[in-house]
Amino acid sequence: MQEETVAPQMRDTARITALIYLTVTGIALIALLLVGLSPWEAVNHAMSVASTGGFSTRTASAGGFESVSVEIALTVLMLASGVSYVIWWRLVTGRGLGIHTVELRSYVLFVIAIGILLAIGARGSDAPGNVFDGIFTAASITTGTGFTTADPDLWGEEARLLVLLATASGAMVGSTTGGFKVRRWLTIFGGIRAEIQRQIAPQRIVVVRIGRKPITDDAVRAAFGFMAVAFVALVMGTALLAGCGFDLLSAFSGSLACLFNVGPALGQLGGLESYSEVPDSGLLGLSFLMLLGRLELFTILALFTRGLWRAR
Question: What is the mean pLDDT of residues 219-240?
């Protein structure tokens, strides 16, 4: 993946990244204090939402506050945390969005669309909760934060499919989120479109673009390679959990949620459930999936190649 940095030097990039993270955390802390959280809970949830970690001081996660104002604040903060740090830096320094306009628009529109559809599902079901639970769930799952306020399993089969789509999507490259990332999907769709055009007109030179930005062939191959490795890891994780006695939906969604660092899954591993029933062998496999996804797949797989160790 082609990825823009906030500064040319690694030290400057690390410094600016830390500054943006601390700023986001500070804004989150103030917002959560304003909606009524205690200082202890506000600090914990501010750090959790800024890093899209999803850990909560409440057993029922964000739903334990039973406050729409808290849910609204967390939703906005989760969406903001899913935005690339490069964008925040460019906006602060007055440089505009640059090449990130299409990615940001796609990210926002995707969350809105999933949120509206989930809200419709929540309203049409007999499950307890409110319409905003659907929007909250869309933001939480897409950004990989993993806060929960309701159980999407109770909203019907369509809601389950939407949750899986949100889990597989991820937010923006350059944010604190895990997942596949929007830019990879844009690159893959662009690569598929370009290949179709080549099949129609073999002599035509087709360039994959995101907006007006051309994407190199290496970046396209990397995106497809990432998808292939993710698919293999997902199949292996699903087989492992199925072998541990979980139904196919739980096994698949649990593996997907761990690989893309989301947390809540569906079925026996749903948002209001936990992974405590997974045996040690399954937990070991899921731990590897989480590490694999957090380090962008290829980084951890490179450790198992002889070429890396020979080079040293």
Answer: 95
